[in-house]
Design brief:
Number of helices: 0
Order of helices and strands: EEEEEEEEEEE
Number of strands: 11
Radius of gyration: 13 Å
Structural class: mainly beta
Shape: globular
Strand content: over 45%
Length: 115
């Protein structure tokens, strides 16, 4: 059973940086597409960034040039480096793993950027 555990959220001032981490258990990580999603209060969950097993990346327009997704298959971990944070980045950030029928979510980590 694959499990995902996120860490690295917190409170940061506008313009600051945070790095989120998501550690996966099990043996399918390296073959999986990993994604970071976020959900703000009263809004739908949205894709922030994703990375495929061959390191192809995709970003939401709102974070392009500010956020970077990366993965370390030796550590079964995916990262989201977030720079130049804005109040509108405030949300719960979720890690997601997809491979064939697997669609697994982490518990989420809160990121707060005050006005």
């Amino acid at each position: 059973q694959v499990q995902l555990v996120e860490s690295g959220g917190g409170l940061v001032q506008p313009g600051g940086s945070l790095r989120l981490s998501c550690a996966a258990s099990g043996s399918i990580f390296s073959a999986s597409t990993m994604g970071w999603y976020r959900q703000a209060p009263g809004k739908q969950r949205e894709l922030v960034a994703s990375i495929t097993s061959d390191d192809s990346t995709n970003y939401a327009d709102s974070v392009k040039g500010r956020f970077t997704i990366s993965r370390d298959n030796a550590k079964n971990t995916v990262y989201l480096q977030m720079n130049s944070l804005k109040p509108e980045d405030t949300a719960v950030y979720y890690c997601n793993l997809r491979l064939v029928w697997h669609n697994i979510w982490g518990q989420g980590t809160q990121v707060t950027v005050p006005y």
